[in-house]
Design a protein that fits this description.
With 523 residues, this protein is α/β, with parallel strands linked by helices. Helix content is 48%, strand content 11%.
């Protein structure tokens, strides 16, 4: 098919994926200058994003009655011999897997250790690299639920940042049909913004599904729901699970989390942001090392790939074998099998679906995050250098170390969920501003968004239109789509599709091309 024919095929279904009306897909008015601040004043940028993270807590306090009910339903399900399923896609898929890991690490009643099951669109191997277009199919969500043995008496907690992901909706609808326990559907947009989207409206209007809206405003980086949206969802579900094991209420955990984040000084991040961005500009690479914070650090580093169009973690089965900018290692694990078990706190669960090699056990085993990763990466990136970035728990401290810079945070006896959410917030800020200094977004708009599914194709089109309007011009959605598909036809893995398409349109209009750093920034 020609690019125009492909564009026409998308336009036939585009109405199902046009998400410009929902806040999580639109630019935040308080971060319009973020790419400039990332370069010129990273300390101010750190404070700016942290202020947005603090906005999570009033929203969570308003939802404490719903969270208290969810905690009671979880406990009653477990006491009755049922299981808790957590479903998500992309960022919410990773948070579902993290929450299962957290549960397995913290659970007091060992009879319940296998009673919380996280599932991500594409299975466990998708935690490294999302499977193209997988999230577009609700039937895939139902199929994964069935494969994991969801049955009557089980309870599903489904989370989707936008409230419109077909895969997650598919899991919620399947659970509503299979179990007498009403599934929970958690999302981060106002109901009125979702009602025009048919699949979302059907969920919102379904009396057999419990809805919990955790709307906290736009994301710090437009559309990057790995940030505030996934953070509030992690906190909402995680505090309920923690309450069951600790005996405290979600309100108690929320108070401690808010106090911890408010009192923690994030200013130390500035030096680490500068050092990591400089590392990449010099053509060098990074290996993250941890033993205690695997899933949290892993999640932040792998989510950079789709957000900023970076090469995903390399798999040893890939040919050619191209190194990613960063990689992960558990120094205490001797081999790949031990590393996967450390990451999940269980054996991995790949899908092994026919015709989908990227979700198979064989592909998963091509990733080695053990102590052997260091030597392998050093040889792979040579003659460039590989720099180790460690985040380790040492007695009562969380210790960050990178290229001669070290910082210790006293975390003492913080509950695990509080400690990991604190780390998540810091890592999200760190990686977002590293990528800002590395030129991976313009203002607060992702110019390197990878249009690997229908939702992201729509996002790319809308962001091109937004950037064009900022330059005093306009274009129809349809014409922009045609231009995008023309550019996608010859797009290389590390090219900014939004910027390239924008400049193609500007050239046709006889206007000056846009440039990364066009305000004159230089790091």
């Amino acid at each position: 098919m020609t690019p125009r024919e492909k564009a026409n095929e998308f336009l036939k279904i585009a109405h199902l994926f046009r998400l410009g009306t929902i806040p999580t897909e639109n630019p935040h008015p308080r971060t319009a200058d973020m790419s400039h601040l990332a370069v010129k004043d990273p300390s101010a940028a750190v404070s700016m994003i942290k202020s947005l993270d603090m906005d999570l807590f009033p929203v969570l306090r308003q939802r404490l009655p719903e969270l208290g009910k969810m905690r009671s339903d979880i406990l009653e399900t477990l006491q009755s011999g049922g299981r808790i399923f957590l479903s998500g896609c992309g960022s919410t898929g990773r948070l579902s897997l993290f929450l299962e890991y957290f549960w397995r690490r913290e659970v007091k009643n060992l009879e319940w250790i296998d009673s919380v099951i996280g599932l991500m669109a594409g299975g466990d191997s998708a935690v490294v690299k999302a499977v193209e277009k997988f999230e577009d199919f609700p039937e895939y969500g139902a199929r994964q639920m069935e494969q994991l043995g969801f049955r009557d008496g089980d309870l599903l907690l489904a989370s989707t940042e936008g409230g419109e992901t077909p895969f997650v909706i598919g899991t919620a609808e399947y659970a509503a049909q299979k179990s007498f326990r009403k599934p929970y559907f958690l999302y981060c947009n106002p109901d009125e913004s979702l009602m025009p989207i048919e699949r979302s409206r059907l969920v919102i209007e379904n009396p057999g599904i419990v809805k919990v809206s955790l709307f906290v405003s736009h994301q710090a980086l437009s559309g990057s729901t790995r940030m505030q949206a996934s953070s509030i969802l992690t906190a909402a579900i995680g505090l309920c699970l923690h309450a069951i094991n600790s005996g405290y209420s979600p309100a108690d955990g929320l108070g401690l989390l808010e106090e911890t984040v408010r009192k923690t000084d994030f200013e130390f991040l500035e030096e680490f942001i500068r050092l990591e961005a400089d590392t990449y500009r010099q053509g060098d690479y990074v290996l993250y090392e941890t033993n205690d914070y695997g899933m949290t650090l892993f999640t932040d580093s792998t989510e950079r790939s789709p957000t900023f169009s970076l090469m995903p973690f390399e798999n040893r089965l890939d040919r050619p074998l191209v190194p990613s900018l960063s990689y992960m290692s558990f120094p205490e694990c001797r081999n790949a099998g031990q590393a996967w078990e450390r990451l999940f706190a269980r054996q991995p669960r790949p899908l092994d679906w026919e015709g989908m090699p990227a979700v198979s056990r064989e592909y998963l085993q091509g990733f080695d995050f053990s102590c052997q990763a260091a030597e392998f990466r050093e040889k792979l990136v040579a003659p460039a250098k590989m720099h180790r970035f460690s985040i380790l728990r040492h007695e009562n401290d969380m210790v960050w170390t990178f290229r001669g810079c070290s910082h210790s945070l006293r975390v003492g006896t913080l509950p695990m969920i509080v400690e990991h959410i604190l780390l998540k917030l810091m890592l999200n800020i760190h990686s977002t501003l590293v990528m800002g200094r590395f030129g991976r977004y313009m203002d607060n708009i992702m110019i390197y968004v990878r249009p690997s599914n229908n939702k992201l194709i729509d996002r790319a089109i809308r962001y091109i239109i937004l950037l064009l309007k900022a330059r005093g011009s306009d274009i129809s959605y349809e014409d922009c789509c045609y231009h995008l598909y023309e550019v996608m036809e010859s797009l290389k893995p590390d090219e900014p599709v939004v910027l390239l398409t924008l400049n193609r349109i500007l050239e046709e209009k006889g206007m000056e091309r846009a440039k990364i750093g066009e305000k004159g920034e230089s790091a």
